[in-house]
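Students often ask why inverse folding is considered easier than folding. One informal answer: many sequences map to the same fold, so there is more than one right answer. In these notes we will look at a single instance of the problem. The structure comes first.
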C-alpha cells in the first residue's frame, strides 16, 4: 500500500488546495480547519512553506495509544479511524510523533486516511503517494 509523502516543499506556493481537498473530499467540510494536512509559512524573508502530514507510520503510536480501538493499524502504514468507537480522550493526539493529529470542533481527531485526494489537487505536485519503505 502507498502512503502520503512530501515530494518537494520548495515547490509549495501556499495555495492550500491540498488542505481544501482533504477537508472537502474526506471530511465533508468547507474549512481548512478540518484538514489532516497543515500548510504553513516557515517565516523569514524567504517566506518558504512547510507541509506537515501524517507519515503513515508502520507501527503507529497513535493506534497503540488508543484505548478503545477507534484507531487500528493500516496495512502498509498509517491508521484506520472508526469514529463510532472514539471516546474523545485525545490519547492519539498526544501520541502522534509528528504532531499532525488535532481535534475537530466536536473533539474527534482529524487523522489522515492516506487516500491521496490531496495529491491529485496540488498544482505543484508537492505531495505524492509512494510505497512505504521498510515494508
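Output (designed amino acids):
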Amino acid at each position: 500500500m502507498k502512503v502520503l509523502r512530501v515530494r518537494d516543499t520548495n515547490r509549495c506556493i501556499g495555495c492550500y488546495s491540498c488542505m481544501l481537498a482533504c477537508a472537502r473530499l474526506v471530511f465533508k467540510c468547507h474549512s481548512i480547519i478540518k484538514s489532516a494536512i497543515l500548510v504553513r509559512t516557515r517565516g523569514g524573508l524567504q517566506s518558504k512553506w512547510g507541509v506537515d502530514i501524517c507519515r503513515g507510520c508502520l507501527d503507529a503510536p497513535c493506534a497503540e495509544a488508543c484505548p478503545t480501538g477507534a484507531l487500528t493499524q493500516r496495512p502498509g502504514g498509517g491508521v484506520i479511524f472508526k469514529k463510532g468507537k472514539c471516546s474523545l480522550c485525545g490519547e492519539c493526539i498526544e501520541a502522534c510523533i509528528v504532531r499532525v493529529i488535532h481535534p475537530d470542533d466536536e473533539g474527534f481527531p482529524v487523522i489522515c486516511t492516506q487516500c491521496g485526494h490531496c495529491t491529485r489537487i496540488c498544482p505543484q505536485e508537492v505531495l505524492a503517494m509512494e510505497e512505504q519503505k521498510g515494508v
